[in-house]
Amino acid sequence: MSSGKAPSRRAILSWCLYDWANSAYNTIITTFVFAVYFARGVVGDPVEGTARWSAAMTVAGVAIAVLSPVLGAVADRAGRRKPWMALFTLVTVAFTAALWWVRPDPADAGFALACVVVATVAFELANVFYNATLPGLVPARLLGRVSGWGWGIGYFGGLACLVLALVGFVQAPAPLFGLSGMEWADWGPQANVRATALLAAAWYGLFALPYFLWVPDEPATGHGLLRAAREGVATLAATLRQARRYREVMRFLIASAFYRDGINTITAFGGLFAAGTFGMSFEEILVFAIALNVVAGLGAIGFAWMDDRAGARPVILIALAGMTACGVPLLLATDRLWFWVFALGLGLFFGPAQAAGRSMMARLAPPGMAGEMFGLYGLTGRFVGFFGPLLFGLATQAFASQRAGMATVLAFFAVGFGLMLAVREPAR
């Protein structure tokens, strides 16, 4: 854990900017633009496209579940985390940019899903190391606040990127950057939509730079990679064997795995749901996404103060209750106006649940084990996490209805809420 020494404002801002940077991947690729383009334009059938996207997310989830705790434990033994973050950030950026070559042709579906699987795995692994730097960056009394600021800034980063995607690409009659005399059609079919992948890649890479420049890294232990790997795996195995020593950690990991899976499923398939069930166009989906990011960002920042004053557990429970209360009528809504009302109400609680989960994990992690614990955080989330996309896809196919798929999400919120009631937060 961090000492009581106050961190520099530049370091905190740079740390938060990484959330601003990586939000482009979630908003543009996995939720509101490319996922919809894949189902509608590449596959050509929203139901079949949703099912195939779901299968790809399931594969990515299994890979993340296997790799995240091992790499987290290895990083704890090696000390430094920035090299790992740099590697996985670069992989995410590269494979996101590669989506530019995905044409609206079913023949390109396999290439698209392969790129998305690799990029998603790298994205989540980068976040394991990113989250693990929080306890070493700020004192315990600021964990909730800084975590909430990060999530909030991340949502506003997604908002800014979506606005640029909407006005500069999807609705723009011609390419940007001074390419005068050329139309989007000169760059191939659906070039204005495909170019948003390049936007997301550039956004991520550019705004991630302050983190690598100004956020302090953990000191190197002097262990080589092979030694760190051996010791890290051995430490992880010992932790799992001695799980009773970390009872509250394990309770929280299991509880959070369920509710995080519900949130991740909604964010992964929200754009597909809006397009397929309510017939929204790309432009309408982007406007909806912009509004959703505004309320989610405000929720994350607003509840950050409550996290530090009342604790992360009450914030998580309130957020889960709020998401369930909005989720039930959302599934029953047939009018677009009510869809907007309840979807934005649901979004208001996304950020608080995610930010408070990160701060609680940071508080529960034993000293020197942040990487390993956030790796387990990723493991448990993904161990349960592939069930969300899987059940969503199976229910969508079985009932030929995206509403049926989205209904499975509410069960994850209910289970997560029940399990969180048994978790005790450490004294502050």
UniProtKB/TrEMBL annotation:
The keyword Transcription does not apply. InterPro entries: Atg22-like, ATG22/LtaA_families, MFS_dom, MFS_trans_sf, Sugar_transporter_CS. Keywords: Membrane, Transmembrane, Transmembrane helix, Transport. It is a multi-pass membrane protein. The chain crosses the membrane at residues 12-39, 51-72, 84-103, 109-130, 151-172, 192-214, 252-273, 285-305, 312-331, 337-353, 374-392, 404-423. Residues 1-428 form the Major facilitator superfamily (MFS) profile domain. This is MFS transporter. It comes from Azospirillum endophyticum.
